[in-house]
Amino acid sequence: MKWDSLGSGKTEMRLPILLQVDAFLSEAYIKTGRVEPRKLARFKVFAELIRQGRHTERGRLK
Amino acid sequence: MSTHKKIIKSTSVDDTKTPVESSFDLYRIAVSMGKAGLPKKFIDQAVQTALAFEGVLDLVKLWDGEKDSSERKEIVADIQDMIDECAQAEKVVAPYIRFNDLDQIAADIRKFKDSLRLIVEDHGGLTDLSKKTGIPVQSLSRFFNSGSMPRRLTLLKIAEALKLDAVQVATEWSR
């Protein structure tokens, strides 16, 4: 997991990344309120789908 | 404005499937979901998906332990999102989107969803649509209020439920 601080630094953008042979940037989100457990659960699902090759790829960084 | 920061932690994602000992909890929660008025079709799909995906099981357990009704609605919408994601059987390579195009795309999606929402209201509103599709109202509400790209699967369910033709649910930004 990586994060960026936005604006004054009070806002954190979370960047969930799955490392396999490639690194996959999954669904990013702003850390607010009680969102974290839900987003981590979603990331678990996305990670499993990536492992199974059932994901959607929308671009690659070069 | 933005400063790159460090790696917080490497989130470990367990490879194992849902442990058998969680099944009892899962079915107990499914009964609670039924009592809470969630659609049977949704509960069936949530249970099936939770048995295969630990993340969905986590969401189901979060729902069970949550007391705040608005947070529970968000969890239900998340579970439906994940049910739809898990329905994808293979890898899809979608077109790359340039950062500078995001605002225009978001505006297009907003316009499309607003237009579809009017049709839904003409057909009895979100509650009726929920009954016809088996998609929880919470999830439909997120669908229409968010600027995210609509899933084809959701659009097809809506079209089928309201007997709409292909043009009425056509958008180039479905996924």
What secondary-structure arrangement, pairings included, does this model have?
The complex is a heterodimer of chains A (about 60) and B (about 180).
Chain A: E1 2-6, E2 11-15, E3 17-19, E4 23-25, E5 29-30, H1 35-51, E6 56-57
Antiparallel strand pairs in A: 1-2, 2-5, 3-4
Chain B: E1 3-7, H1 21-35, H2 40-52, H3 54-65, H4 69-86, E2 92-93, H5 102-122, H6 125-133, H7 137-145, H8 152-162
Summarize the structure.
Chain A has 62 residues and is an alpha+beta fold. Chain A has one helix and six strands.
Overall mean confidence score, pLDDT of chain B: 87
Number of extended strands of chain B: 2
Total number of strands of chain A: 6
**Rg of chain B, Cα atoms, Å:** 18 Å
So what's the oligomer here?
heterodimer
The percentage helix of chain A is 25-40%
Secondary structure: helix percent of chain B = 55-70%
Distance between the termini of chain B: 31 Å
Q: Which structural category do the helix and sheet elements of chain A fall into?
A: alpha+beta
Rg of chain A, alpha carbons: 13 Å
- Approximately how much beta-strand content do the residues of chain A carry? 25-35%
Instruction: Give the biggest sheet of chain A.
Output: 3 strands, antiparallel
Question: What kind of sheet is the major sheet of chain B?
Answer: none
Rough outline of chain A: globular
User: Total number of helical segments of chain A?
Assistant: 1
Order of helices and strands of chain B: EHHHHEHHHH
Shape of chain B: globular
The main sheet of chain A orders its strands as: 1-2-5
Low-confidence runs of at least 5 consecutive residues of chain A: none
- Determine the N-to-C terminus distance of chain A: 20 Å
Sheet-strand content of chain B, in percent, reads: under 5%
Would you write up a description of this structure?
- The complex is a heterodimer of chains A (62) and B (175).
- Chain A has one helix spanning 35-51; strands at 2-6, 11-15, 17-19, 23-25, 29-30, 56-57.
- With 62 residues, chain A is an alpha+beta fold.
- In chain A, strands 1-2-5 form a three-stranded antiparallel beta sheet, with no helix packed on it. A two-stranded antiparallel sheet of chain A has the order 3-4.
- In chain A, a hairpin with a 3-residue loop joins strand 3 and strand 4.
- The model of chain A has no long low-confidence stretch (mean pLDDT 87).
- Chain B is built from eight helices and two strands; from the N terminus they run E-H-H-H-H-E-H-H-H-H.
- Chain B has helices at residues 21-35, 40-52, 54-65, 69-86, 102-122, 125-133, 137-145, 152-162; strands at residues 3-7, 92-93.
- The longest helix of chain B is centred in the middle third of the chain and has 21 residues, at 102-122.
- Chain B is globular.
- The chains are: A alpha+beta (62), B mainly alpha (175).
- Chains A and B meet through strand 1, helix 1 and strand 6 of A and strand 1, helix 3, helix 4 and strand 2 of B.
